[in-house]
Amino acid sequence: MNMKRIKRLIITTFMILAIVAPAVMVLEGTSITTYAKSAKLSKKKATLKVGNSMTLKLRNCKHKIKWTSSNSKIVKVNARGKIFAKGAGTAKIKAKVGKSNYTCKVKVNFKDISLTTGQKSKLKVNGINASKVAWSSSNKSIVTVRNGKITAKAVGTSIITAKVGKNKYKAKINVRKKQPEWKSNFTLDEVVDTPDGLLIKATSLKAIKNVMAKVDYYNSNGKLVSYNCNDQVFCVASGETFYLTIPHPIGESYSSWKINFIIYNLPGEYKSQKSSLSLFNQWKKDNYEGVSVRNSSNNKITFDLITIYKYKGKIVGFYKDIMRDIEAKSVKSYDHLISTKGSVFDETEFVITDTALSD
């Protein structure tokens, strides 16, 4: 092979390399670009309620992902792409891989709200000037709204809408009847209508200084025939069972009654003494019955003693001794003539209620 042919071969080889090498680089570059374009976010839009969460995924991507939120007061996102709805509004969640960005627009509605009649609450759209929000209620007779301040007017359901431009953020408001105050103070275990009157058994949820039961009686036409029949107890400890008794009105014909409980937060110190008293040695002889009471405290105590009459396990009547007292560290017996308007009974139970330190 002569020198000219060798030179020609070398030149040809370099020319081939000059053509092939860039092609390889382009192919490799194309491969990377194609891979990046194949990555896809699991959602481009999402709607949540405050308090809810979900997880976004960037599919076909094995590289490190950086997650960010445009407004963390509306939506927060952790390093794994889990998003948390924090407040009403709209925010963008961004997944960044190298120089590539993938975005999900997240709309957050208000959480459902439960109110009682008369209660108020306030709603706010995050990231928006309050003057730019138009508020409305689907039923103004149930819930009214003004500048995000809502008022529960009546029992039912209403949808509150906050409109910002084309975006609408909704809140479902459930309104229930306001519960009487006593329901947060005690549970009503039993109300029994007997020939002797109403026997009310209850258990306190917290310490109560004074609770009164007032009863109104009505005739068959719904007319009030007797009112303000009442009984009360003082010094009830948390978790204590107590009793109230209401004798039926004499000489009045009635067909129904209604109880109203009133809680009084009286000034001064009031403390139940019931845990210091115990009953034992219940007896019955001829037309009399009684029970012994032990006072384990260092104080003189006054109390009410109720005799409950039962027939086949059901309460049929009662008798109440009020303002009994017992000296400190002593035992005393109490008796009375069997007294009930209930015609038949086969069981008697004594209970102590309304205890207090005696003067």
DSSP summary, beta strand count: 28
**H-E order:** HEEEEEEEEEEEEEEEEEEEEEEEEEEEE
What gyration radius follows from the Cα positions, in whole Å? Answer: 40 Å
Briefly note the CATH topology name of the domain at 186-265.
Immunoglobulin-like
Given the C-alpha coordinates, what overall shape results?
elongated
Number of helices: 1
Cα end-to-end separation: 136 Å
| Major sheet size, sense and barrel closure | 4 strands, mixed
Assign the structural class, choosing from mainly alpha, mainly beta, alpha/beta, alpha+beta, or little secondary structure. Answer: mainly beta
Low-pLDDT regions: 17-36
Quaternary structure: single chain
Report the CATH C-level class of the domain at 186-265.
Answer: Mainly Beta
Pfam families: Big_2
Domain BIG2: 35-107, 108-174
Protein name: BIG2 domain-containing protein
Organism: Anaerosacchariphilus polymeriproducens
